[in-house]
Amino acid sequence: MTKLPFYEKVGYAMGDAAANLVWRGALAYLAVFYTDTFGISAAAAAMLFLVVRLSDGITDIIMGMIADRTNTRWGKFRPWILWSTPALGLFMVLSFTTPNLDAGGKLIYAYITYIGLTLAYTLNNVPYSALMGVMTDDDKERTSLSGYRFAGAFLGGLFVMGFLPEMVAYFGQGDDATGYQYTMYVFAGFLVALMVITFATTKERVQLATEHSTSLASELKDLTKNLPFIILPLLATTLFFYYRNLTTGLFFVVIMALVYLAIKRLINQDTSQISSSQQDIIDLLTNKPWLILLGMGFLTMMFNGIKYGVIAYYFKYYIGDNLLTGQYFVGLLVVSIAGALCTSPLSKWLGRKQLFIIALIISSLLTGAIFWVPKGDVFSIFLIGCSAEFFAAILPTLFFSMLGDSADYSEWKNHRRATGLIYSAGTFVQKTGGGFAGALVLVVLSGYGYDGMDATTIEASLPGMQWLMSWIPAAFGFAAALLMMTYPISDSMQQNMSLELAQRRQSS
């Protein structure tokens, strides 16, 4: 079992600090930037967030396959962190740039730059997440590493969320469009420096058991035959989520039934007729821990994403003090760092599954309680919100740690391991959940008549902001707690799998 040195854990954490200069910034501020600065309607921005999720369904899987098949002197995953960083910084700036275009041109520009941002993030974050699975074969070290990772993530988020409003005001001097653009120049510079640190300080140690008998080009061609089974469910979900009517509901049910039948047929197919990429997919679809974690990733990201997506609106309009947004984010993220660092010792005491369930229930109850806080009681909002965030911070830390367990389970059961593909699904559901969370915020606000360019619509939309800060995200948290109760890998089972896998690798 490999113990990781302190400097390597910190170096790995710097990568998520860098990524969250993009992720937390886009998640928390891009929606309000689109509606209140760039001038896109809430309904159009909601559809934008949903449509981009369709591209993520493809690119994350492809990137996972590519990363698994990459072989360089630096390893499989580390090189991609370095190669993708310039593009990530560039699209970070472009996404918050406001060219002088008409309404249609603005929407086209937003689509191009947001798709570019998510693609660059995929190229960077899928290999970064998978790197955790090959730095050590010790599940307890992975949990500790995940704690460091998310402490870094929350530190990056603290920087962007806490200081962005003040930096926009400083650089813009009353012009938010200029302020956002110059602020992103600063964040992009930090992003490049931190990613280089991660590349330089980490090391890949675990030798993967995956065998690929065909070329990547051949397997990507094979993947294109199955793209409808990836795109159509996402399309059906998107249409039903946005329009919420009988027609889209029936379309959703029919598509899901057809996909289920297609998957069942693939699993039952003669193994001699199955390609390596198809076998990777079958291994995933028969991996119960991974399937449950897939659902957990989506639900917990909806839980966290809705809260973060509405905060800027809530403090700007419901509370009436825009600068409190940054202060609230600072409070949340300071508490989040503590929550991430406490995850490892708490999981040793309670067990990871039990801790996951407890954290979800407590955080959801506290989040729901915000609904009853009187409108002017800022202190109670901060107290309850930060208390809920301590437990919410445990969720992504455990999630990515346990994805490594599902990779172990696949190798233990099938003698094959597609670490990149397994972690690509983790980043995919995180981004999908974030996209749907951001879209849900805008859909709810649009339903209340909100128009960021028309002040007369604000008053009627305030109840929607109140629900989005409380019981709407809490409902997803309770659903995740119920799902987590079905997770089959106990800590003792994980320990036995790790020992058996270590013996196999030594004897091979």
Strand content: under 5%
Q: Kindly, what is the distance between the CA atoms of the first and last residues, rounded to a whole number of angstroms?
A: 16 Å
The number of distinct β-strands equals 0
CATH topology: Growth Hormone, Chain: A
Shape label: globular
Structural class: mainly alpha
Give the count of structural domains: 1
At CATH level 2, the architecture is Up-down Bundle
CATH class: Mainly Alpha
Mean pLDDT: 81
What radius of gyration results from the CA coordinates?
22 Å
The largest sheet is: none
> From N to C, what is the helix and strand string?
HHHHHHHHHHHHHHHHHHH
Low-confidence stretches: none
Q: CATH superfamily assignment?
A: MFS general substrate transporter like domains
Number of helices: 19
Helix content: over 70%
Structure, explained:
Helix content is 81%, strand content 0%. It has 19 helices and no strands. The protein has helices at residues 6-38, 42-68, 78-95, 103-135, 139-172, 176-201, 216-225, 227-243, 246-267, 276-285, 288-319, 324-350, 352-369, 378-392, 394-414, 419-447, 458-468, 471-484, 491-507. The protein starts with 5 loop residues before the first helix and ends with a helix. The model has no long low-confidence stretch (mean pLDDT 81).
Concise summary:
With 508 residues, the chain is mainly α. It has 19 helices and no strands. It is globular, with a radius of gyration of 22 Å.
Walk me through the topology.
Layout: H1 6-38, H2 42-68, H3 78-95, H4 103-135, H5 139-172, H6 176-201, H7 216-225, H8 227-243, H9 246-267, H10 276-285, H11 288-319, H12 324-350, H13 352-369, H14 378-392, H15 394-414, H16 419-447, H17 458-468, H18 471-484, H19 491-507
Helix pairs in contact: 1-3, 1-4, 1-5, 1-6, 1-11, 2-4, 2-8, 2-16, 3-4, 3-6, 4-15, 4-16, 5-6, 5-12, 5-15, 8-9, 11-12, 11-15, 11-16, 11-17, 11-18, 12-13, 12-14, 13-14, 13-15, 13-18, 15-16, 15-19, 16-17
